[in-house]
């Protein structure tokens, strides 16, 4: 029998290998008289997932769940007359114009007639009203279906959608945007963690003879796993607050906990409701989102890379310190024959003062000291020295998580870009380029491009003095923690002492004479270390940027803000970041900054209104009674 068992084992492997053996017979010999046997391979389901996991925020508030939805089928033919429309609005408890608006939002374009009736999503209370008056409205049909339901109207790019529910939206993208549709597809954590949310069936894989007897397994058994809940690091209240500040403006705001890499909020503006992409009565809204010239469907923090502006001076300074090109006590004159500096300030005699004033000539000369340094070994080859120095700069900058995929748990993350010597050789058509032709790198412009997630991670590295965890949205899966790769600590190539040398300058930015002194939170005991930036834009108004972390000596939050066509970082981006920091650390906004808060929120709403009305600019801000606030700082240099 031992020989026969050996043969059965071999035949099992041959069957698995696809060799098509229908039966295995015993060899001639003592066992030749035994009947040959064929074992059938079976796959038996032991259990199937019963539900899809929920998505919760860091305080365990449910953001997405599978719940019973009520769908009201409204016939298109014959159409509803005005009296019927008014009566139906009254039945549902809606204002007079609501039904017309809801029907328009459900049509893919004005006047479109879809096959069959239009389905409107109702609340349980609205559905109960229809059910109780069903005899009076025989033309209306009320149906029930379990659907993925969003309990919030925020964080759309983060939450994303289940692909099966978003097919009408995906079809619209492919038809409308054609080759660029992939940039607008963002399934968020719903898609990224789909397998964990869905769960999987349990399977047994027995080998069975003709009598039903079992003879081992032809493959390892699969354990049953029900759908797992996702516990996000996202703070739903902070997310909603940050979205109220940006509203319809173009840009992003990302805040994370530098101690863990957990993303506290991620705003991509213009904002929209997550249900707009999957609800059956939002086809018209989806078309408006697709046709919007500001591309609200782009997940800006993850996929849109832009020049960072003066905030990148922090990275350049850290690398220059590491390479010995400057020291914390190095000073440079504000020589505007090298590069313009758009405001007047005292001479930057130290690195701290250079950061405080954001002096462009100071950082021009800092970067020049890095690129034009010629070591003794290359004294006869200055071209080779510049190539080696730029390659070294790029390698150090890349260690900040730049010019590479961070590995964030969202689909379609982009890598940004840092130029290399080979890039300039090709772009300039010569190896003999000089620093003067690449000096824009010194102020974070030119060929440098960073995403919002990279900007926030960059300032988190400085907050940690040289290390970071990969930024991530999910802090726990089921009853466990995040994915293992989010628990791996990464270190930069810059020493902690050199990153520590940046902090006094970042603190000075927020003090009197600094470029963001008006955004200080010293009155409530919060010390912010920040850096403003203004990105020159030849096609319109400049872009405003700001990065910061707080409290400075025990960082709990790091923030990056980028507002397109908003002007100076000190006056546009810094107040948004300061409000988010105060909201997170204190839970409320001090009375003296309520004026800022109203102004920022008004701007966000005004831009949304301007988009609806087709205007390029929002209406002017309302007159707000003046209160005692610190003076607004002079605009900082690009």
Automatic annotation (TrEMBL):
| GO CC terms | plasma membrane
Where do the Penicillin-binding protein transpeptidase domain residues begin and end? 251-578
Q: InterPro entries attached here?
A: Beta-lactam/transpept (IPR050515), Beta-lactam/transpept-like (IPR012338), PBP_dimer (IPR005311), PBP_dimer_sf (IPR036138), PCN-bd_Tpept (IPR001460)
Q: What segments bear the compositional bias annotation Pro residues? A: 619-638
Listed Pfam families: PBP_dimer, Transpeptidase
Q: Where is this region: Disordered?
A: 614-638
Q: Which GO terms describe its molecular function?
A: carboxypeptidase activity; penicillin binding; transferase activity
Places the protein is found: Membrane
User: Could you provide one GO biological process annotation from this protein's UniProt record?
Assistant: cell wall organization
Q: Which domain of life is it from?
A: Bacteria
The protein's UniProt keywords, in alphabetical order, are: Carboxypeptidase, Hydrolase, Membrane, Protease, Transferase
Q: What is its main location?
A: membrane
Q: What is this protein called?
A: Peptidoglycan glycosyltransferase
| Species per Swiss-Prot/TrEMBL record | Hymenobacter nivis
């Amino acid at each position: 029998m031992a020989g026969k068992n050996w043969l059965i084992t071999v035949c099992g492997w041959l069957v698995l290998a696809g060799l098509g053996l229908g039966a295995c017979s015993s060899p001639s010999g003592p066992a030749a008289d035994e009947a040959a046997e064929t074992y059938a391979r079976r796959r038996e389901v032991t259990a199937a997932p019963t539900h899809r996991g929920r998505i919760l925020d860091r305080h365990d508030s449910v953001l997405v769940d599978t719940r019973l939805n009520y769908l009201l089928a409204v016939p298109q033919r014959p159409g509803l007359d005005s009296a019927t429309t008014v009566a139906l609005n009254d039945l549902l408890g809606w204002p007079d114009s609501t039904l017309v608006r809801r029907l328009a939002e459900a049509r893919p374009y004005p006047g479109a007639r879809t096959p069959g009736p239009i389905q409107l999503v109702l609340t349980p209370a609205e559905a109960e009203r229809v059910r109780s008056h069903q005899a009076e409205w025989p033309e209306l049909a009320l149906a029930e279906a379990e659907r993925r339901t969003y309990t919030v109207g925020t964080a759309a790019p983060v939450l994303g959608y289940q692909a099966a529910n978003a097919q009408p939206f995906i079809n619209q993208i492919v038809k409308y945007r054609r080759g660029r549709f992939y940039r607008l597809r963002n399934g968020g954590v719903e898609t990224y963690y789909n397998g964990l949310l869905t769960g999987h069936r349990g399977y047994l894989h027995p080998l069975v003879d003709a009598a039903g007897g079992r003879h081992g397994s032809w493959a390892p058994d699969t354990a049953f796993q029900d759908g797992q809940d996702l516990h996000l690091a996202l703070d739903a209240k902070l997310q909603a607050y940050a979205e109220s500040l940006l509203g319809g403006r173009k840009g992003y705001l990302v805040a994370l906990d530098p101690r863990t890499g957990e993303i506290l909020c991620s705003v991509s503006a213009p904002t929209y409701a997550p249900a707009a992409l999957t609800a059956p009565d939002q086809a018209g809204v989806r078309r408006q989102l697709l046709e919007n010239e500001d591309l609200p469907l782009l997940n800006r923090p993850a996929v849109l890379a832009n020049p960072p502006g003066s905030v990148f001076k922090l990275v350049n300074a850290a690398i220059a310190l590491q390479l010995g090109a400057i020291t914390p006590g190095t000073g440079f004159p504000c020589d505007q024959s090298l590069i313009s500096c758009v405001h007047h300030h005292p001479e930057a005699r130290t690195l701290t003062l250079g950061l405080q004033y954001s002096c462009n000539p100071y950082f021009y000369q800092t970067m020049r000291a890095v690129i034009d340094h010629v070591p003794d070994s290359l004294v006869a080859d200055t071209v080779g020295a510049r190539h080696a120095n730029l390659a070294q700069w790029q390698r150090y900058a890349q260690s900040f998580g730049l010019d590479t995929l961070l590995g964030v748990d969202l689909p379609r993350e982009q890598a940004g870009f840092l130029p290399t010597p080979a890039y300039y050789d090709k772009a300039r058509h010569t190896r003999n380029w000089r620093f003067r032709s690449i000096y824009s790198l010194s102020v974070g412009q030119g060929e440098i491009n960073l995403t919002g997630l990279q900007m926030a991670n960059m300032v988190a590295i400085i907050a940690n003095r040289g290390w970071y965890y990969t930024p991530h949205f999910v802090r726990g899966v089921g009853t466990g923690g995040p994915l293992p790769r989010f628990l791996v600590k990464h270190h930069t190539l810059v020493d902690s002492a050199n990153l520590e040398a940046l902090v006094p300058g970042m603190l000075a930015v927020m003090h009197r004479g600094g470029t963001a002194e008006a955004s200080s939170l010293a009155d409530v005991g919060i010390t912010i270390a920040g850096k403003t930036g203004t990105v020159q834009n030849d096609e319109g108004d400049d872009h405003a940027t700001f990065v910061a972390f707080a409290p400075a000596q025990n960082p709990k939050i790091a923030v990056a803000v980028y507002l397109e066509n908003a002007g100076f970082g000190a006056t546009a981006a810094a107040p948004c970041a300061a409000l988010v920091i105060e909201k997170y650390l204190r839970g409320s906004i001090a009375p003296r900054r309520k004026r800022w808060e109203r102004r920022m929120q008004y701007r966000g709403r005004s831009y949304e209104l301007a988009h609806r009305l087709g205007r390029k600019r929002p209406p002017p801000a309302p007159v707000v009674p003046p209160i005692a606030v610190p003076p607004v700082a002079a605009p900082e240099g690009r």
